[in-house]
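Field log, afternoon session.

UNIT: design team B
ACTIVITY: writing a sequence onto a fixed backbone
BACKBONE:
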């Protein structure tokens, strides 16, 4: 595949719809899949509005589509930053103040024993985000909770409603 930067956005959208372009190819061409998806009506990830828990001008918080635990949540910035080292103090305060609130809420709503936080954006193209991963009382403590196997997302509209209300 030639560098996708040689194509117009419209051409790339068409190729994505035809299944000819993967996220990795976008990344390898220096195009952020998160931003491209947002700028082109969810062409990559589809309509994920039912998973959005909170959003404002700076951040958004959503349930992860391939979670490592029930209640696995991510928080990302609206604007493109490549990682935590790329954000300024104001954005940092905003993200982590919100993260603390979200952790407390997840613990309460899902009955988790604890909630872990990680961020590991790396590589040539990444969109800054942090992950909140619940640990339940039947799970051992420790760093293995960061790499629990991915599971299928199961919609739970009742919990989503409570989370949205608490995170407002
Ligand atoms: Zn981006």
């Amino acid at each position: 595949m030639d560098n996708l930067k040689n194509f117009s956005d419209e051409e790339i959208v068409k190729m994505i719809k035809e299944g000819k372009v993967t996220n990795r190819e976008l990344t390898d061409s220096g195009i952020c899949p998160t931003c491209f998806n947002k700028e082109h009506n969810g062409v990559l990830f589809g309509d994920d509005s039912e998973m959005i828990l909170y959003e404002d001008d700076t951040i958004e918080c959503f349930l992860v589509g391939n979670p490592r635990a029930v209640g696995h949540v991510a928080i990302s910035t609206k604007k493109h930053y490549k990682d935590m080292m790329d954000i300024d103090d104001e954005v940092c305060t905003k993200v982590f103040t919100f993260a603390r609130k979200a952790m407390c809420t997840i613990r309460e709503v899902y009955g988790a024993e604890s909630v872990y936080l990680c961020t590991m954006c790396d590589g040539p193209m990444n969109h800054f985000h942090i992950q909140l991963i619940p640990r339940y009382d039947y799970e051992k403590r420790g760093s293995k909770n960061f790499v629990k196997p991915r599971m299928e997302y199961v919609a739970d509209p009742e919990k989503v409603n409570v989370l949205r209300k608490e995170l407002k």
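LOG NOTE: Residues 32, 34-35, 80, 127 surround zinc ion (CB under 6 Å).
NEXT ACTIVITY: expression trials, pending approval
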